[in-house]
Design goal:
two-stranded antiparallel ribbon, globular, 2 strands, 162 residues, 67% helix
């Protein structure tokens, strides 16, 4: 196996391991919320003037899928929609108190996981961090270019809702 294949395999294994070890605590603490709902709540809380387009681009989902997701979150009382006085056309979202509770639980869990894993991260040098971040940035920019090249623009198609 070449180094590129090793890196990709280990990235996938690492991601799956993190998801598996965190899953039961997340599900127990965020009972009744799907991961996509929690990620949507997180984005709305951390980004002012969140709308369907911004959510679709950030979460790599179609606008149609985001519309369904925000409707579910609204029905659950976790988010609410609003319009600005100067722009009656655009719909934005913000968290309700219930939504903020979910956000805070999620943040607390991430902090617990960060503390759990701190022993590894404190061994990483600044140079190693710079190298890893540089690689991730290059790979991300490559994937962005591939997305554009393949015409996988979130705003063009509502047929895939992965």
């Amino acid at each position: 196996m070449n180094k590129q294949d090793q890196v990709m395999l280990q990235f996938r294994d690492l991601f799956n391991k993190m998801a598996w070890i965190n899953k039961s605590k997340m599900e127990e603490s965020l009972r009744g919320c799907k991961p996509s709902e929690v990620h949507c709540i997180e984005y709305i809380e951390k980004n002012a003037e969140s709308n369907v387009t911004k959510l679709a681009e950030s979460l790599y989902m179609t606008k149609g899928a985001i519309s369904k997701l925000t409707k579910k979150l609204t029905d659950k009382g976790l988010i609410e929609s609003y319009r600005k006085p100067d722009n009656k056309k655009e719909v934005y979202f913000r968290l309700t108190e219930q939504g903020r509770t979910i956000f805070n639980i999620h943040e607390k869990l991430h902090n617990e996981f960060r503390e759990r894993d701190q022993a590894v991260f404190e061994q990483v040098t600044g140079e190693q961090y710079d190298s890893m971040l540089s690689f991730i940035d290059k790979y991300s920019r490559h994937l962005d270019a591939e997305i554009r090249k393949q015409g996988l623009d979130i705003n063009k198609s509502d047929s895939f809702e992965g």
